[in-house]
Design goal:
heterodimer, A: 370 residues, mainly alpha, Alpha-Beta Plaits, two-stranded antiparallel sheet, 9% strand, B: 488 residues, Cytochrome C3, two-stranded antiparallel ribbon, 5% strand, globular
Chain lengths: 370, 488
């Protein structure tokens, strides 16, 4: 192939760039504003009320029949370490000492049940689904264990049972979906003594959060975390200290994860198809170029050969003519010589000089007689 | 170029003999605290002056073999804000104790030959006609009324005049070997030195002919001035000026721009001078410390008050009873317009009435122990030491006239916990309104468990009680001995 690698990359780049210009976002996660299914349920976590008693962890463990922990749930010294949800713990409580607060601040951490979850978008087998009640539900029977969901989650929530070799599962908070379907409330919400957790529809929770912030402006930071972060979550937080001081990232942005990837994904098929076609075309063109080159070379050779042949033929013809002329001239010469000899003989016989002229008259007379 | 972070103390320490003269010029025996000039000449000339003089001194010292500062072409060594020095200077101002020490001092002589007090030594006003400062008796105010943060047409900046007036006087006295105030920066601005300033205990009232009681009423004032009865807007307020004086550090707390009456600038529609803050906003704005309501709200944040008040919604303006302050009945003011004496008399009566402490609530009205036996599936009932807590709270409200007045009787104090009650004497059980759900209402009212725990533990936390800790469940209710199966 007469095509350099540099050219190849240049053409590929041009294809992709062109693709960006002409592609539109995919229909799925377009620029519409999705504010959740109507009536979807969530939980409001009031961080100023949490006292770090860890009863929510105990209740979650009990209700989901998780294995017993290494240290019991009433051991509050565990809070000296920062923990994250892991296999066997759908939720943890962490302790923080922000500079602005006079006493330690406790935050409960678990799946935020985003409105447009990154994990649901990343799962290509639909093991993770967003239900209409608001919960993100995990179906272990479909899961293949690729753990793309763990990579995709902006909050680093899904955990994996690495120590289970046979049937490992992804573990994360289920929003107590089985309990909700029976008309109960999530176990952690039920057990919290300080009502730091409030269960209700997302719309109601946002109203409650706004009322609390307005009613107690000295107590709360004026922001509901989860209202817009990563496109919005069903788990909302209000706090008495800045969110960045309590381990909650403030720079996630308000665009949902699927919306971030919808552009390149929509373009993918176009890139593949047009790329394939384009590359085939390039191959064809370069192949044809070779072919053409060959042909031209051949025709040049042929032409030269033909020219040479023509020249030779001409020379042959010329030679032939020349030889013919020569032959004729030679024949004439011989005839002349013979005639002169004959005349000479005749002259000798008759004693007169017969010229060739008279020969000529004799000849012409013979011709007249005939 | 960034501004120069000038290390003044370092320079004064480097002098052989402590003095201001090497850098500061004198104008009629008073040191002018500008660098080697009496007046600012403008940006360029001043800059050249600084460069010339500073570097000259540095060069001279270097020539003598001493450690010195940067020279020419070492621009960023001076023009740098990233030095490893932190400015620990604390702002400084006069408080009542320091003011009184100056008043008492024999070394401070009055400017004229007044016999009663040395106020004229410092207090003055600028007379436009005479084009100089003169002392006007009875109109003394704080320096900051004319000398603001930055220089204005009314006067030089407060920093300039404070340094020039205070320091020059201190210097003069020091030269005479008399005991006077500090003469170096750290003397006033170092935190350690500030805490060492002697504080007098018994400080008499500043003599400025201020009233003891005032009847606050804009419409009454208008009626007096115009001579015609005006629209009688609202019941006047009897204001106890004397007791408020004791609460604040200086007069500027309320008289923030001048000693004129508030309504001069804060009219009913607001004026240019008041930045269009209307009278009712100036009096009632809950977020502003200069307003009555704002300052009272601020005092609710102290540990004595916050147990109940931190839990009260800040935005419920309509729950505030206006007639706590607007107590003067209009009828008592007739015939209008009431004269000054009448007003003063009425105000005094009101204030006397207020200062009377409320009746003692007898023991039989306050249950001693209350057993909270509702929702006992995991823990036993709570034996709540009701009377002990109420008596403690009552004692804490006796600490000041303000709290005493606002918490007389059961209606106010008891409603800290027994809130939203239909009657003031008998209170419904908490469970009547806070349903036994484990959930809040959509409008934010907590369920019963959250209500109990929230109210109790918030009060403990805000009032600074170390015990019981919120996470110590058995401090308030014992765990049930027989195991109760959890309902799933």
């Amino acid at each position: 192939m007469g095509f350099t690698r540099r050219q190849f990359f240049a053409w590929m780049g041009a294809t992709i760039g062109n693709g960006f210009l002409v592609s539109t976002h995919s229909q799925a996660a377009a620029a519409k504003l999705f504010s959740g299914y109507p009536g979807s349920l969530g939980v409001l976590h009031d961080i100023s009320r949490c006292i770090g008693c860890r009863k929510c962890e105990a209740a979650c463990n009990r209700v989901n029949e998780l294995p017993p922990p290494e240290r019991p749930f009433d051991d509050l010294k565990v809070l000296n370490l920062k923990r994250r949800p892991h296999a066997g713990a759908y939720t943890v409580v962490n302790q923080f000492f922000p500079p602005a607060a006079k006493s330690p601040v406790f935050v409960k951490k678990q799946c935020n049940h985003c409105l447009e979850p990154a994990c649901v978008s990343a799962c290509f087998v639909k093991a993770l689904k967003k239900s209409e009640t608001g919960a993100v539900i995990y179906d272990p029977s479909l899961c293949v264990g690729c753990r793309y969901c763990m990579i995709a989650c902006a909050f680093n929530i899904p955990a994996y049972e690495y120590n289970d070799p046979v049937t490992p599962k992804v573990t994360m908070c289920t929003l107590c979906q089985p309990r909700i379907q029976k008309g109960l409330i999530p176990a952690c919400v039920e057990i919290c003594p300080q009502e730091a957790l409030t269960f209700g529809t997302r719309k109601d929770l946002i109203n409650i959060a706004r009322q609390r912030i307005q009613g107690y402006p000295d107590r709360y930071v004026d922001h509901i975390y989860g209202e817009h972060e990563m496109g919005g979550c069903n788990w909302l937080y209000i706090s008495n200290v800045r969110f960045r001081d309590i381990g909650m990232s403030e720079d996630l942005g308000i665009i949902a994860a699927p919306q971030l990837t919808s552009g390149p994904l929509a373009m993918l098929s176009i890139v593949v198809i047009t790329g394939f076609v384009f590359l085939t075309g390039i191959y064809a063109i370069s192949k044809r170029k070779d072919l053409t080159a060959n042909e031209e070379k051949q025709s040049a050779v042929n032409r030269i050969a033909n020219d040479a042949q023509a020249e030779i033929n001409q020379m042959v013809v010329q030679l032939k003519e020349k030889s013919k002329k020569d032959k004729e001239a030679a024949v004439k010469q011989e005839v002349k010589k013979a005639v002169e000899e004959a005349l000479k003989q005749v002259g000798e016989n008759s004693g007169t000089q017969v010229s060739s002229q008279s020969l000529g008259t004799i000849r012409s007379e013979e011709q007249e007689r005939r | 170029m960034p501004t120069v972070f000038f290390l003044h103390d370092r320079h004064t320490d480097a002098l052989e003999k402590p003095s201001c003269e090497p850098c500061h010029l004198k104008d009629a025996n008073l040191i002018v605290f500008k660098f080697k000039r009496l007046k600012d000449q403008g940006c360029k000339p001043d800059r050249e002056l600084y460069h010339l003089e500073c570097i000259k001194c540095h060069t001279d010292r270097r020539a003598q073999g001493l450690k010195s500062g940067p020279l020419t072409a070492e621009c960023r060594r001076c023009h740098s804000q990233n030095l490893a020095y932190i400015d620990t200077a604390q702002p400084f101002g006069m408080d009542k104790s320091l003011h009184y020490r100056h008043v008492l001092s024999d070394l401070i002589r009055p400017a004229g030959n007044e016999k009663d007090g040395n106020c004229s030594a410092c207090h003055h006003e600028y007379d436009q006609a005479l084009k100089k400062t003169v002392y006007k008796k009875g109109q003394e105010g704080t320096c900051r009324y004319c000398h603001k943060q930055e220089k204005t047409e009314k006067g030089r900046s407060f920093k300039t005049v404070a340094h020039e007036d205070c320091l020059n006087c201190h210097f003069e006295l020091k030269l005479q070997d008399k005991k006077a105030g500090p003469t170096i920066c750290a003397g006033c601005h170092a935190a350690a030195k500030q805490s060492n300033i002697a504080k007098l205990e018994q400080i008499p009232r500043i003599k400025r002919n201020q009233p003891d009681v005032v009847l606050l009423s804009a419409w009454l004032q208008e009626a007096l001035e115009s001579g015609k009865p005006s629209n009688q807007f609202v019941e006047p307020v009897a204001f106890n000026h004397l007791s408020h004086e004791k609460q604040v550090e200086n007069c500027r707390w309320c008289h923030h721009e001048s000693m004129e009456p508030c309504a001069m600038c804060h009219t009913r529609t607001g004026t240019d001078k008041s930045k269009f803050f209307r009278l009712e906003q100036a009096m009632h704005s809950p977020d502003n410390l200069k307003s009555c309501l704002g300052c009272h709200r601020e005092s609710m944040k102290s540990a004595d008050c916050a147990g109940c008040h931190a839990q009260m919604n800040a935005r419920r303006f309509d729950e505030i009873k206006c007639n706590h302050c607007h107590t003067v009945a209009r009828k008592s003011l007739e015939p209008l317009p009431a004269s000054d004496e009448t007003r003063a008399k009425i105000a005094a009566i009101q204030i006397n009435v207020r200062s009377v402490p409320g009746p003692v609530i007898p023991d039989d009205k306050i249950p001693e122990k209350v057993t909270i036996g509702i929702m006992t599936d995991q823990y036993e009932s709570v034996i709540f030491p009701h009377r002990q807590i109420v008596r403690t709270l009552i004692k804490r409200t006796q600490k000041s006239i303000l709290t005493q007045y606002f918490h007389r009787g059961t209606a106010s104090l008891c409603s800290g916990c027994h809130h939203h009650s239909p009657s003031a004497d008998t209170y419904p059980k908490c469970a009547a309104c806070h349903g036994m759900s484990l959930q809040s209402d959509p409008n934010g009212k907590p369920g019963l468990k959250g209500a109990y725990h929230g109210q109790c533990s918030t009060c403990h936390q805000r009032m600074g009680l170390e015990k019981p800790v919120s996470t110590d469940c058995t401090a308030c209710h014992q765990k049930k001995t027989k195991m109760v199966q959890q309902k799933d």
